[in-house]
Design goal:
The protein has 636 residues and is mainly alpha-helical. It has a two-stranded antiparallel sheet. Strands 3-4 form a two-stranded antiparallel sheet. 3% of the residues are buried.
Length: 636
């Protein structure tokens, strides 16, 4: 076999036979044997363990595969594994007995003097401090490792167990107590657990601290007071801030000066609260002003004490029998005749405004408030402000307060600008001027005029004050437009033909004065039956002049032109008919025909001779012209 293989075989045999024998033979081969057996030089930290005879310092032989003995030397790591704390306790696999074998995952040896024994599992990733058992957050996160991992921070107990010659390069031995790195500003007054109040984000305004959980919860304005106002340094220069063991909550005088000189036994809470020193408020169970000669009610209860008590001596008597002992007469003596001018007649302690003087009280004065006046604000009649307000205005006439909206139209007799003749306090718009009152005017309302609303004649203008109530003329044409054009001038007043009941109801017009007397059926005809309305330019116009008097202008020719002549296109129906009735006819056979009815012919009805008929549309027309005149044409 080769020399190297033989040497290794021989070495294994020696190991089985004992360490002493192996040492003799190893010494015999010397450096040659070491060069053949070692995987490589040890690191600088373990160089003292170099050499074949020292292998057993780290390796255990004779029990199968060689076992590592790291924890035999690194007792500080063993202790942390036993206590299950620190980084190694989280990453080492297996039991404590197997722990040494797991060290090689991160700490590889026999790689030369310059080799770094620590090989991170993720060399390119940032070390997650959470694996060491304490996550770095807030202000701790950006700190360099050496800020905490240095010799000054290692506890004396851990220093005794660490085998590093340079403790500044060790990551072991640090405590997670805040005071290990930070000075206890409270000098152990509040215990060592800083995390009860502080976190890693900020030291000031500790988010975990709540004064509500302390012996003195902060209320009212105390919540806005800076901590240093109460928690001062003891002694004032250079000492630490005091957070406990002082009697700030026993009495207010611990912090506040008593401005009353002991008048209230220094018990500030009887009248004051933390919500504010001013104004003073009797606290529940404290000073009760109701037990004095002048109980405070309404607005008086909110008045600051010094408004009445001018000095700090609250035992000095304050005049309070009359309101004017404290309040100035704002009305300049206008009410001296009423209860001596005492304010309580109109005002109460619940508030100066509104006054308690009501419309019911006003009814007892010389001017009772009725209707709409009862809802009018006081300032509308009582002009002025403050002491200049006039509470005795004149009220002889409505004009004292109200402007004349009719601009003097009713200034003359009998009205003389007395608004109450037409209006009442209940409503201005609902005037009580009735048709009965209108009958006494120059324009009595009769017929349909009674139902016409006032604004139809008294047109309401854009400005109500311009509404017209007086007219220079009462002619119909002032309000009504004539539909008869210039013909209306001939008839004069509309009343000559019309009545006020209905426009279409005509009056006693004498038609015989027109040259066409109305007789018979014509008397019952409507005017527009003959006088047809026209609408020139979109306006209805009824004319009377030039109306034809021929029957054919109004009546249809039922004879279909049988009686028309070359000179008379519209025959005169009056030759045969009368206005009394269309039938019987007034036709004179002797006068208007060449066939005289004599004898028995006078008794023959017309239809027996005029028997011929002709249909025109839906009507049958009696044929008169061409009727036989010879006897044999009718008689056999």
């Amino acid at each position: 076999m080769a020399d190297g293989e033989a040497l290794r075989f021989f070495f294994r045999m020696l190991v089985r036979r004992g360490i002493a024998a192996a040492a003799v033979l190893l010494g015999f081969w010397g450096a040659t044997a070491h060069a053949q057996m070692s995987p490589g030089d040890l690191s600088q930290a373990h160089k003292d363990l170099e050499g074949p005879l020292k292998c057993v310092s780290c390796h255990a032989f004779g029990a199968g595969a060689a076992q590592l003995k790291c924890l035999d030397c690194h007792e500080e790591i063993r202790r942390r594994l036993e206590e299950k704390r620190g980084y190694h306790a989280r990453v080492v696999k297996g039991t404590l007995k197997q722990a040494s074998q797991d060290c090689a995952r991160c700490h590889a040896e026999h790689n030369g003097r310059q080799h770094q024994l620590v090989r991170w599992r993720t060399p390119k990733a940032r070390f997650d401090h959470k694996e060491a058992g304490w996550a770095l957050e807030g202000k701790h996160a950006p700190l360099a490792c050496e800020k905490c991992h240095n010799a000054s921070k290692i506890s004396p107990e851990d220093k005794a167990t660490l085998k590093r010659s340079d403790l500044g390069k060790s990551y072991l031995g640090l405590s997670q107590k805040c005071t290990n790195c930070h000075v206890d500003e409270h000098h152990n007054d509040l215990g060592a657990n800083c995390l009860r109040c502080h976190n890693q984000e900020t030291w000031k305004a500790p988010p975990g601290f709540s004064h509500d959980k302390s012996a003195y919860p902060l209320t009212g304005l105390h919540q806005k007071v800076g901590c240093e106002k109460c928690h001062k340094r003891m002694p004032p220069q250079g000492g630490h801030v005091q957070y406990k063991n002082f009697g700030f909550f026993e009495t207010c005088k611990s912090c506040h000066k008593d401005p009353h000189g002991g008048s209230f036994a220094g018990d500030c809470q009887k009248c004051h609260s933390t919500n504010g020193w001013k104004p003073a408020r009797p606290a529940e169970g404290g000073f009760d002003h109701g037990k004095t000669e002048y109980p405070l009610k309404g607005k008086h209860a909110a008045v600051e004490c010094k408004k009445c008590h001018k000095t700090e001596n609250f035992k000095a008597k304050v005049p309070h029998e009359r309101c004017i002992d404290c309040h100035k007469d704002q009305h300049n003596g206008q009410f001296l005749k009423r209860d001596g001018g005492e304010c309580g007649a109109c005002h109460t302690e619940t508030g100066w405004k509104p006054a308690s003087f009501t419309a019911k009280d006003h009814a007892k004065t010389r001017y009772p408030l009725l209707g709409k006046h009862a809802t009018v604000a006081c300032a509308e009649c009582h002009k002025g402000t403050g002491a200049a307000t006039n509470y005795h205005p004149e009220f002889v006439s409505c004009r004292n307060c109200h402007a004349d909206r009719h601009r003097g139209q009713f200034a003359a007799a009998p009205h003389e600008n007395r608004c109450e003749r037409c209006h009442a306090e209940q409503s201005w718009k609902q005037a009580r001027y009735t048709p009965a009152d209108h009958l006494k005017s120059k324009m009595p309302l009769t017929g349909a005029h009674v139902a016409v609303s006032c604004v139809e004649c008294h047109q309401r203008a854009a400005n109500p004050e311009e509404t017209k109530f007086r007219f220079g003329s009462t002619r119909c044409a002032e309000c009504h437009e004539t539909p008869h054009g210039t013909l209306a001038e001939k008839f004069g007043s509309c009343e000559n033909c019309h009545t006020t009941r209905r426009w279409k109801e005509t009056g006693p017009f004498d038609h015989s004065t027109t040259g066409f007397a109305l007789t018979g059926k014509h008397r019952g005809a409507t005017c527009t039956g003959c006088h047809k309305p026209e609408i020139p330019g979109g306006r209805k116009l009824i004319t009377f002049r030039g109306t034809t008097q021929q029957c054919g202008a109004c009546h249809a020719d039922v004879h279909e032109g049988q009686f028309q002549t070359a000179t008379e296109r519209k025959p005169d129906c009056g030759r045969c008919h009368t206005t009394s009735n269309w039938n019987p006819t007034g036709f004179d056979h002797q006068k208007h025909s060449t066939f005289s009815l004599a004898g028995a012919h006078e008794l023959v009805p017309c239809w027996m001779c005029h028997a011929n008929r002709r249909e025109v549309g839906t009507r049958k027309i009696v044929i008169y012209r061409g009727t036989p005149k010879k006897c044999e044409e009718c008689h056999r």
